[in-house]
Description:
By secondary structure, the chain is mostly helical. Helices cover 58% and strands 0% of the residues. The protein has one domain (3-66).
Amino acid sequence: MIYADAKKRAAPYGKIVAKLPEMRRDTVMLIHQSIAQAKPAYVLVNNRSVGNAPKTIQGLVELLRANEPTSSQ
């Protein structure tokens, strides 16, 4: 999507305008791979992808918590 179109679609950034569950799952998978390899993971989140960066981060945190490996693994 063109940047200007994404900006227009997401404004005024107060809510999620497009759910991207695959993007969230992929991000969580990469974070878990990073942890397994003892390497840092940096996740950059902005408003353009889904409309509200804080809510996107909250969703990622919830997904990470739901998919935490158990201590027996």
